[in-house]
Amino acid sequence: MAQISSGNGLRQRSSPSLAASRSKDVDKEEALQMEAEALAKMQKERGVAGSNQTFHSLSSTRQKAQAHNKQDHDLMVFPESDAKSVEDKLSTIDIEKLTHAELEKLLLDDSFESSKVPRLPVSPILSPSVSSQFYLAPTGQRRQWTHGMPAPVTCTLPPIYPSASYTKQTGVFQNGFHPSMSSYHSREHIYLGLPRQSQYISYPLAATTPFHPRGSLPIYPPVLTPEMAKVFDKIASTSEFLRNGKSSTDLEMTAIKSAASNRPASESCRDVSKFDWLDLDPLSKPRVDSVDTLNKTENDGERASSMTAEDPWDAVLLEEKLLVTCHLERKVNGKSSGATVTRSQSLNMRTAQLAKLQGQTAQKDNGTTGMLTENVQEIEGQNQELSAFSQAVMKLRTKFPYANQQTNPGFVLSPVMLQRNISGESASIKVSIEIEEFQQPVTFTCDVSSPVELIIMQALCWVHDDLNEVDIGSYILKVCGQEEVLQNKHCVGSHEYIQNCRKWDAEIKLQLLTHSVICRDLARTEDDDRTPIHLTKHLYKVEKPFREPIIRSSIEELLDVYHKQVNTALKNENQHKTVDHIIKTVRKICSTLDCVETPAITESVKKLRRAVNLPRTKNAEVSLKCGDNTSKSSSGSLQPENPLKASIDQLTRAVEALLQLHTNLCSSSAAVSPEASKSTKEAWTATEHLQFTIFAAHGISPGWVSNYEKYYLICSLTHNGKDLFKPIQSKKVGTYKNFFYLIKWDELIIFPIQISQLPLESVLCLTLFGILNQSSGSSPDSNKQRKGPEILGQVSLPLFDFRQLLTCGTKLLQLWTSSHPHHVSGMASKKGNMERIVLQIDFPSHASDIEYKIPQAAKSTVHHSIETLEKPLRDRLLAILSKDSTIGLSKEDKEFLWEKRHYCHSHTSSLPKILVSAPHWDWASLPEIYSLLRQWPPLSPLAALELLDSKFADQEVRSTAVNWIEALSDDELTDFLPQFVQALKYETYLDSALVKFLLARALGSIRIAHYLYWLLKDTLYDTKFGVRYEHILGAFLSVCGKRLREELEKQTRLVQLFGMVAERVKQTSGSARQAALQTGMERVQLFFLRNKCRLPLNPSLVAKELNIKACSFFSSNAVPLKIALINADPLGEEINVMFKVGEDLRQDMLALQMIKIMDKIWLQEGLDLRMVIFKCLSTGKDRGMVELVPASDTLRKIQVEYGVTGSFKDKPLAEWLRKYNPTEEEYEKASENFIYSCAGCCVATYVLGICDRHNDNIMLRNTGHMFHIDFGKFLGHAQMFGSFKRDRAPFVLTSDMAYVINGGEKPTIRFQLFVDLCCQAYNLIRKHANLFLNLLSLMLSSGLPELSGVQDLKYVQDALQPQTTDAEATIFFTRLIESSLGSVATKFNFFIHNLAQLRFSGLPSNDEPILSFSAKTYSLKQDGRIKQVSVFTYQKRYNPDKHYIYVVRVLREGQVEPAFVFRTFDEFQELHNKLGILFPLWKLPGFPNKMVLGRTHIKDVAAKRKVELNSYIQSLMNSSSEVAECDLVYTFFHPLLRDEKVEGIDGIAKPTDASPSSPTSGKVGGEVKLSISYRNSTLFIMVMHIKDLVTEDGADPNPYVKTYLLPDTHKTSKRKTKISRKTRNPTFNEMASYSLCCNSLCGYSMETLKQRELQLSVLSAESLRENCFLGGITLSLKDFNLSKETVNWYRLTAVPYL
After folding, report:
1. pTM of the predicted model, to two decimals?
2. 211 exposed, middle or buried (CB, 10 Å; 0-12, 13-18, 19+)?
3. 1238: Cβ–Cβ under 8 A, 6 or more apart, which residues?
């Protein structure tokens, strides 16, 4: 036996038990010579006719594979030369005298191994869809392949995959295959053909398959010498065989025993069936627990694994070898291409197709033999769903003919947004129009509400004298610098371009053109409309995450090799070598088909191994009893069957079945069934329970074998995003090895739910879990404590296909999983190294197809008015309907809502809540649901958006929603396009209303088509839905037209180039970065030498080249590129963008989309907050492009201009703005822009929970517009500093921002404007809470890490305060402003510093004070024992603020007069807290609660606390001496300096209240803004703002407000606001409420309330003197219309007050 090692030094490895007997290596030339000599010897000895042909077929192919590259791994053995030595060895051994140990030693000799053969290539499948074809040659034709296809004669094979048998039987696979099943045996050669391509996922094999045999299979009996028979017989009695062996069926046992009795004694074998132990079932083998080291070579990147055989018998015949991927040259016209490629470990079978396969021919000595298939055409007809979808897309395209410019404009229209213009001062705009006949632009002023056609007329007046002769409709206005055109039917001010120019105070530049001149370079042509729809033709240029590398070898070549080897096996005397070749080729075929090995292939390989070892016989009885049927020859006479030929026939059919099965990989639709006459029955009549068999998971990676001990599946049945039944868990099994590693369950799963109860859109979800092998040191993250099973992947399958037939037969389901199993959900892992395994699931095949027929809607029902309900029921129903979304609906709410559904028609937007409350969606429940749906008034498009969520899977509901959404304009649709693309995941079938809606809109709008392409391209990375998005993207590229398609391909190429440059710059460091950037940009410039290209960010921007000198990079962690591009329009400005790699920009896209929608809502309500909206687009996995806002800087850059401590100063922002706005008018305008934009940013960032807000993530434009960037943290997922949140404030509002807002250090009325803007904007967003919740809910499946569940939606819902009134929300947001303004960066830094320095445990050291208010520590020895102690009284203090202090009477031993010490409540609490630290195990007396409802600094609270504190002191002093006499207690009661300064306990006079008081002398001035309203039997008075207060001394007061409802003799109606410090323009936004049933008001009617007066007083809180009166008002409530809110300013006067 000779062995040749590969030229690159990579040696073939075998199991250690065999290594000792390997022969030495020889060089390649010597090996080739040895091979040629050996083959020549074989040819001479056998004298087989036509051997020259055989030699050429085998030798030439092998030599080509060896010689074409040094990387080939050639392993050649010559078993023929060893056969004689084996026989000689056996002749000298007495088999009967061998012990078991000696026999095992003998068997482990290499002589007993299967022959080594060259490894065949691992070739990719042509496409995920292939079908089987067989060809029949004329009857007399033998041993030759032809090109012709004469009329085929059809004969039928028995079923290979019949309906699954659910009663377990010995030797029966769960999918119905039985090892002893009789098989069809033809006298003709069987040729496998490549099936026709099919795109989609899987469908069942038919019970019978058309089969056209071609040629004959000659009978060659297997070779088994008498000596070998004795050895095998001896083996059968060994302990290993008895432990691991497997009995065959009774039929085989009987047949072989009978055959043995008819043979001579010297050749008899007592029980040939014992050879079955050689081919153990995987479940009967020891489980594979370990895998040898994986070997990788640097050059080819191939990987191999060496398997150590635990069973010593595996080393004899099963031959566990290296899993090395070899190279195979691709033949082109019979010649080697000389190129080699490697196969990646996980092939992407989802790729729709490879390049068109090349036909191959092979010349032989005796003539030309036709190949298996001359050329495989790209045909999609096999999968019905894809075919039907293609037809639907083609029909859709006919509605958008190329000749109609309305549906095929060929240019980009400027987006339009309607807004209310409430400020008449800016109603006029100045327009500059370029006209071809004029050198200078025409400039004039027009109104923003003027139609574009009127602007065109005004411009034409400069060109034509008589406009009656001019066709105004033939003219258009193009935006200068952009390839976009204003829409003539809209007013000029509604275009976003005009609005942005007004925002930036930029000049409005337009160009007057005619339709004939405008560039329509993106329009579809006549050829585009005639081109057939092809879903995969244009995908080859799209960068897909899981696409296989281009491999030249194909499945054709493997099948070609297979047939040649079959011919060779049937011609040779000794078939050991050729059969081993055949088995290895079959293994390669299985490996190409996702490492799927069906039970039929497993059993066929076993039989083939047995057949080659059986003795030759022509006894028909033996052949019959061995389980092989005889068949008639062409002459009609009966002839004994050749076991080898029969086994090869069976193997061929098994391979054909695998190919046919793989054609429909993961498909939810069935192939064209040959049983066209199969009957159907309706699903609602099917009483069978849903059941299926989980057979196995194929293609398990070796890494899993060592990392995971057991695996199991969770099977769940879902509809509307919820489980229909409790999920079922499979049994836990390990990994086994046959051809490949697999997880074999072979387990029947039964859901106790009848098929009749299944909704049409029911989906079966299978989730694979792995249980970690704790003993494995190489497990991922093995250094961490791992708990519980890990999710390895998930796959789903609709139970009814697109034709509404229940799925049946065997399914292969692709399950994509990350190499790091922790990140399998949603999108692919960052590096994109996804692996795929295939789940084999067997569904039962019923006698009749089960069809789901959608029922008709029920008859119309009577609607009722909600007013007819009783009040409690009506109130409950209205409360449920008022909720913003379906998130908070309880089970009881849903039941009640469904019961009262006919009362809700007047509340149109309640339909989603009612549908989500429907108790069932089975066939019997649908008529009522459909009736409700058809009678319901149409929803608004934005409200109907909720019906596209995962909660609504029903096709009728979703189709109705799409019909309502049709009313959206193209520009509105563009805003919500990401959500529509995500909603495609919730469609059950490809041909849906939503898909056609998006394709139709893309055909009519270049802008929609542009963004739809990039969104679809980005979703290809979704591991679960990537296949679906490929089909939709393929359909889009087929209908969009050649010009647009080529433009998108250019953009894709440009993005790839930018990505490569960004990666290179990021990987380099230091000064090399600039050089890498320069080199990379020069390469990109070569792209622009051949092309102009539109930017992915905006289809209106066209770049013609790079400005390389202006390109740079940012110094942040991601090192993004700053790219400067020269505008192709000479009238346009330079284009600046940023390109990022290594960061997921989809979250930034979503945050910016939400902010843009907020801005549009504000504008439509007449509130222009002057928001900066910039574009951001994810162009691939962890990369994307961001628009750069010109003339802007980060706050950090602005602040550091004023030193390192610039962020702690108040003036940097104001001075920076003044630098760019030197005049007072310009600065006021910039300040105003800052106030408005800052208000919008505060609201937007709070509602969206945007975190990680540092000064590098906030930018300021020199026009005063502030905006945020970098939205990597949102929905409250704060950046953490250890275990603490860095974002402590609700939003960013710092003192330097307040300085700009106020126009100085002191609060002014400008800050009140800021507060009002914030509250108004917040309330406007609250009205659209349902819209934002729906938009975010549709993005839950996008794979964003911070938007993954309902809890994230709950954050936004809570932030919007859905159940509060506008007034309450105003108060709430005002408190947020105060909280944010008080939470400056310095306070946060102090907090972190204090936390790090926290060292307090027990008592402080001697040099530290034991109490914060005492400088020293005192003890019992120093002061004397305390005899009595009590809280004597309390006093009111005014310095520094109003508070109460408690007088403690302390009497010590030896003292006659007690001492008095003064302690605050907080000081008492400090004593208690430190006692708890000092005595953690002691039970201390309970301390009074600090929390008090209402005001704390009032007399009643002080009186109550006096009693409680006295009780605490008494308990403390009566406790154990260790506590009562400790230094801490004695220090607390030691007199302080402040105690000695007080003259007795009456030293501080208590101020008296004047009732009523007269106002102090002096000037009173200012105004107060109040909101007065009445609802729910309650009067609400909201004190909003006060401005221009006046004081006697001119100092800034500390104002607060008191209100009374007069007459009020007992002051029970007193209400008081908080104190606002040091301001003449305070903002309160606080509510005072008066209920009619409260205290003295109880029993008063509305008329009585109107007889009362509201008295309001403004006072200044003073520390050392009486509070100062600043003014007041008295309002008679009879003058107000209390049924509606009144908001007004009132002048303060000098009136008496309480």
Report:
1. 0.71
2. buried
3. 1266, 1293, 1297, 1301, 1314
